[in-house]
Amino acid sequence: MAGSTLLVVLLAVALVLLVLAAGGLVILLRSRRADVAGQHNRRADILEQRTDLERREHRLSEREDRLDAEVHHLEERVHELEARETAIAASRAELADLQFERRRVLEQAAGLSAEQARVELVAAIENDAKREAALLVRDIEKAAQDEGETRARRIITGAIQRLATEQTTESVVSVLHLPGDEMKGRIIGREGRNIRAFEQVTGVNLIIDDTPEAVLLSCFDPVRREVGRLALQALVLDGRIHPQRIEDAYGKARAEVEALCQRAGEDALVDVGITDMHPELVTLLGRLRYRTSYGQNVLSHLLESAHIAGMMAAELGLDVALLRRCALLHDVGKALTHEAEGSHALVGADLARRCGEHPDVVHAIEAHHNEVEPHTVEAVLTQAADAISGGRPGARRESLEAYVARLTRLEEIATSYDGVDKVFAMQAGRELRVMVLPGAVDDIQAQVLAREIAKQVEHDLTYPGQIRVTVVRESRATEVAR
């Protein structure tokens, strides 16, 4: 029993060992099979890589062949270009020889070297260019001058035609109408007491004559004459005339005239469209209501000049308000000339500067009579407006006979000098244009002639303002192109 059990155990062990040996053999066979498959795969990969390398070597070989062909082609092109450069260099050398030979032949034929010929050609071209430039400049200047003169005439005549103003009617005598002739006796008073007191207080002379129901007041100061007229009018209306009443009426009339002056200055600003101005300037403008210059009312002259300047500024595209301000204030110094030293232009400019006016306005005031050289458009237009307002017919009191006689005498003075061809009195006698013969009077003699004529005019004539003497010497050369 024990022996059979041992035998079974041995058989079982033998069977197990046999199974294990069979499993190991299977594993070994599988391993060998896997190794054989791997070797086969590696051989296939190596073969594929070798084939790929062979293809690449073939392509590289073909590329090298193409590069060799291109290099050969480029070498042929280089040789061809070198041959062309050699031929071009030879042609240039031959052309230079031909040009040198041609220049030598031309120099021999012309008798000039190339440098001399070039200098002469440049000089000829330069002279032609200068001549053409001079002709062009002359034509442009003439066209500009003609256009400027035409436009200036149009602007000035348009400004004058558009202006509507009164003629001069100022006088040194005022007339006061009375309710009756018996009032003349009251004005004279007992033994002339009232008339003497009136003339002493007011500084105005009373002229009582046979004129019915009228008394004349005479005084060269228009402000005092107006104060006296208002005082006498108040006395006549009251009926009580004696020295004390005369003094009271004079005080009230003086205050009334001052108020009228202030209102006149404010009305002037409204008339020209100016809204801001120093009160002192407004008061002085109002004072000019009773001031006259050669019979022309100064305030009316300022308003007229302001409107003319504004119209010309509008035509030229300038600042209309600034031009009106310059023209309105250009004679403001006349209200202070008896209180300050200097001409009214410089006095007015200093006053405007102290009152904070614009520098262009100040310059226009001081330059409107050429005490200061004008250097702005506003100053020049202010001068023009002043001349138009003062020189127009009817602006200033002067008889026609005296005016014509003065112009005739001006022309006679200039005509009496040797070398004078024609004489024209222009701008209402403010300018004398003298045309001289160019062969008889040279440039220096023309300057001397202008000075001598101006001195003789100052010595022989009496005239308002200034007279400008201009001597014109013109030479003309005319040729006909055939």
CATH architecture of the largest domain: Orthogonal Bundle
**CA-based shape:** elongated
Give the CATH class of the largest domain: Mainly Alpha
Query: Percent range for helical residues?
Result: 55-70%
Estimated structural class:
mainly alpha
Sheet of most strands:
3 strands, antiparallel
Note the gap between the termini: 171 Å
Show the helix and strand layout.
Blueprint: H1 2-110, H2 114-162, E1 173-177, H3 182-188, H4 193-202, E2 205-207, E3 214-218, H5 222-238, H6 243-272, H7 279-287, E4 292-293, E5 296-297, H8 298-316, H9 320-329, H10 344-354, H11 359-367, H12 377-391, H13 400-415, E6 420-426, E7 431-436, H14 443-460, E8 468-473
Parallel strand pairs: 7-8
Antiparallel strand pairs: 1-3, 2-3, 4-5, 6-7
What report would you give on this structure?
The protein starts with a helix and ends in a 9-residue tail after the last strand. α4 runs parallel beside α6. The model has no long low-confidence stretch (mean pLDDT 81). The chain has 482 residues and is mainly alpha-helical. The protein has four domains: 64 residues; 89 residues, K Homology domain, type 1 (Ribosomal Protein S8, Chain: A, domain 1); 119 residues, Hypothetical protein af1432 (Orthogonal Bundle); 74 residues, Cation efflux protein, cytoplasmic domain (Alpha-Beta Plaits). The protein has a three-stranded antiparallel sheet with strand order 1-3-2. A three-stranded mixed sheet has the order 6-7-8, covered by helices on one side. It has a two-stranded antiparallel ribbon with strand order 4-5. It is built from 14 helices and eight strands.
